[in-house]
Batch of 3 targets.
Target 1
Amino acid sequence: RKKDLVISQTAKRKKGISTKYELEIITAKGKRKIINASISPRFDDKNNYIGAFGSIIDITGRKSLQEAVLRAQRLEEAGRVAGQVAHDFNNLLAPLMAYPEIIREELPENHPVLQYIEEIERSAEQITEINQQLLTLGRRGHYSLEPLNLNDIITNVIKHIHMVPETLTIETDLSDNLMNIKGGSSQIFRVILNLVHNARDAMMDVGHLTIKTENYYVDKLSGKFGRVPRGEYVRLTVSDTGSGIPDDIMPKILDPFFTTKTTTKKRGSGLGLSIVHAVVEDHNGYIDVESKVGEGTKFYLYFPITRESLEEKVPEQIVGGTENILVVDDDNVQREVASKLLKKLGYKVSTVESGEKAIDFIKKNPQDILLLDMIMPDGIDGAETYKKVLKFNPSQKAIIISGYKETEKVEEALKLGAGAFIRKPLTLKTIAQALRKELDKKETINNVVSYK
């Protein structure tokens, strides 16, 4: 193809036509470069073509920047669509996630229907996982940033890797003195698991897969997907001995829904690497890749370090209560699901479908805590509702729920005093823990500590 291009351009110059074209070349050191050639013909006194003169400019950097901008635009558009779809899915998932747990407790042990309940739960969990990937892509997934150690997450990932054949070797090389990073553990877990699945697919479960961590100082580094700024990082490397990534495919690998799997293979969602990219960016990190066709691929992830220490976590139990709770949600299914879960925990539950009705209800019927949906398109949202309630009841407790995080509104509600954010679909465990944590919280009023 390159030869044909050069021949055709030379033929034009022989006709007296100046030519401009881009060409990809491989340098003597094996580096890929893109050049812009601007060449004009030369003729002798008898108008015979005797050669050409012109300029050649290396535009590799400019082309990489253009590709990065186009990739960002594609990710933004795909993320917008994915976020909306995931929000709708979350509402539909609510009964699938919540009701099996309630049904199980109503059935005797060894009842034949229990196996079907387990199938429903497994399927719902898988759908929820895909939905979480869509939410992550849409930058609407909510997670708290806390100090964590990458080695701990990798150890957990390894435990979740099943059905490893004898033809595949998985090895870890984890730094003993690895610095902590700040992030969401479940999102980082998803990133590493996606990279492992991607590597296994590339090797068809035949070869060597290595996961490595190290403390890494970047002085000057330029990668395929942008420059990594100078600084201190924890670097994660996932390498495989698979088929490698061809140069013509490399610019597309982070695109949402891009996959090289054919219809004869088990197709994935095509979200794997785009999710990796989205999560790494959300953690102020960077991604780079090295690959050689026929030899394998290495993915490098750079996460900024933190010097904050890890917090010890105590397992939380499912504990209910008898307090009064008002559920505010514009979706009838969500209200019904939340109501059933809360009544199962022993609470006295009321429900309304809008912020306006919630305000009127609370004025006449004081509540111990509110369960507020954040997004209610047909009226005032959760944050605005809470703000209006606080005007006549400054000590009102509340918990925010939503299918995705609208950062501004959620942050506003949390700053107003809302105790926690719970992501839909709700489960008995998550709602129970959040409620008791908020209801049992100490309050400081005029420097006097009291319990509500």
Note: The chain has three domains: 2-58, 146-306, 324-451.
Target 2
Amino acid sequence: MIRLTALLAAWSLVGIAQAQVWEKMLAPGLTYRMEADLLTPRLIHAFRLSLASPEVRALPELATGKVFRTNATDSRETLSAMTSRTGAIGGVNADFFPFNGDPLGLMIRNGELLSFASKRAVFWWNDSESGVGTCTTEAILYLPEARSLTLDGWNEECGANAVTLNTAVAGVSKAAAPCVQATYRIVDGSLSVGGAARLELESVALDNPSVPVPEGRVVIAARGNKVSALGPLFPGNAASLTIRGTGLDWPRVKHTLGGGPFLVRNGRIGIDASQQGFNAAFSANRHPRTAVGITSEGDVWVVTVDGRQSISAGATLEETARLMLRLGCVDAVNLDGGGSTTFNLFGITLNRPSDGRERPVANALLVFSDGLRAANGGGSAYSIPVPSAVKVGDVIQLKVVDKWGGAVPNLQVVWAGGGAGWIDQGGLFRASAAGKGYLAAWIDGIIVRTSFDIAAK
């Protein structure tokens, strides 16, 4: 059961007119927050979570569980599909991506390196603490006859005159012909930053553009002038791999997600967009945003801002940074935004993605809690009565009722709305356009849905 910790708290103290906030405590160490600023306008959804709480945990998740998978979205996956597949109770989209399943920045899960670092900002965490920073990663392959190669990529398609390594997380190793793809067995060691592994060559494929990577194996692909650098390849050959990193206190790093730029550093606005390769329009224009930040107490805020819609204009990077400061963050990083910005809770997309639907993304930050239940059907136990005539401009107080007609206390409900209107966490629905309105409400593991027509004035 969820408990409401704050309801309809006006933001007049911070100078935001016509704005309200709701906070619903979902579990010890996990709170859901919604803000509705009607003047800007701007809709915000957020989690505040305590990494030290035994009731909740946060994990990075790769779309479809693999970097490369043959599907309609080139291995990308919607956030709602990721939460359903993993059993997470919620989450947000994370890193930027090149419209395939390969995140652009550093990704580490449970200590295992999944994607090399870029020059952009990183959010890292473990079971009790978190931080932000920039870093570098490097992997060196040691071959017979005292030869060595610095890898150009990790779990990514091999480019021209490059050598890359793909683990089982990649699914397959991709390289355009002519190429060499060498499959090695991992004898021992680890694929973590600061770690090393001993390898044994099992097989070699010539000009095969897609080689499967089984568990316990890695495939090293080479193209162009890097083919000869691999030297003679004979099954049984021994090799070794070392992975190095700079910029972070790596023994403390269990998970990471990439993003950029920084929003807040050491309690002050610290936007470094141009230094991280972002243009002026990205920074100065209002867009949908996703961000993650850390408070002085060590709690983590995961935030989305809807945008590019009449009901929510979005935010500039500076406005996003000020939001993170207002939430108490001393460090904060911007994540992928725009049409990727998505906030999911209990299997429901609570925010309104600017594409009009969820965009498949490359990875996500997911939240888990064993004491909470996502949707398990049973919606017939509840209903949402809606007036028979609703027109544009109407503001309607809604409630969930049980099968006996009794109203469910709003503090036990998580609301979501879509289509031609939106709903806040107080159950107030605003009809913003003519068309179809959609509602969903989560009540202790059960989701009830309804739809209705909204007429023009």
Note: Helices lie at 79-86, 225-230, 280-284, 317-326.
Target 3
Amino acid sequence: MENISSSQRNGLSEWFRRRSSMLVDYNPAAGPYFTGRRPFLILLVLALIGTFAAGFLTYRHLILVSNTGGVPESALCRAQGNINCDAILMNDYATILGFVSSSALGLMGFVFVLWIVLNGLWNERMRKIAWTFLAIYFFAAIGFSWYYIYIMMFVVDYICTWCIVVHAVNFSSLAVVLVVAIKNKDNFLLKEISTPGERFYFVTLGIALALLSFAVATALEKMLVVEDMHVKYEELANDPAVIAAVLKSSPSYEIPVSPNDPVYGSPSAPHNLIFFSDFQCPICARTEGYLKKIVSVNQGVINLVYKNFPLSTECNSSVLGNLHPMACPAARAAYAAFLLAGSKGFWSYGDKLFESQKLLNKNPWLQFAQTLGFDTSRFERLLEPQSQAAKKIEEDVALGIKLKLNSTPQLFFKGKRIPENFRGPYLVEALEELAKAENPDDKDFRLKRP
């Protein structure tokens, strides 16, 4: 091992020695160091255009996700046909890892480019190292551009004009960088004339400015999102164009529905609204009541399919804490009612559970079964951990984990997850948009409002 390490070190040292021997001294009489000002001026213009475009997209993204009032259409990007900047900014691909705004990331990149270009203009000694950084940056930026161009063309079916401006700036800038680099390839062998101090401030301050711009935009967005969560989602949900765009571009899921699932409404209804719920969840109780009203006024058109996702560590390994400790036995009890009396028995028993959430810690399972006239001996056997009811809960929880659920209630319709901002009075609009997307010929499809 020592011989191999020594050989590697000797080879590396030899490479650096040969490289150093190829470097030549800079002769001021031969002209500007590395290149003149013109390429930097061209990149400055492109960077300013890119900064404006990315800045506008970042600003618009902040407005869309945080404005509690109405969000007026932007004069800089009016929705027309497939051209819809807002639809692009509000789809699932507008953030990286669900947190990092792609528009803020682009703004950070252009701030970094402006810093590099301005340094190259002001300080001739920094031009070679500046051009090296520009080449590295734009090669990376082109990768992002290709990805988002693909998303626009083949995934979301919407086009953002200012996004195209950003991508065009990236491609144009890379072309300029490559042309100048090839033309001045011999000048890359010039010895570095900038001082270590200049290089240090160039790199550290450039990175700091870029990160600061990104941090400010991201922190502002998250702060406004937390502050205005409730109202902003209601405003977005009131815009049918945004509803259609967001739902159309969201991921699709395959959620099986079988005769083993409790159904509210006609089992033969053509449209299934799938409801993942927890009987110890207060919001689930209110949501279920509203969903039943939608089904009741649209008999034979839509039904409600119940799936279990108790937020309890007893039967759900995906939850971190035992938020609802009685949710698992409550789910088994409700499904036992289904096995004994079908969907009608399930919903009657479920109503009892929701109405008596504060009493669930007293294990009222048999009492409720007796009140509803069930065979209590059979009912009690179905409450056991290895019963048919328990296995059904396991199946539902496994499906919920596969769908990456982490809370309740959760709604799915036509394979699409209904975001929380489309709940309440605007849920019906979301259901209509998804139904029409599945069957474009039925443009006049309407659901009655409860």
Note: Residues 68 and 231 are 5 Å apart (CA to CA).
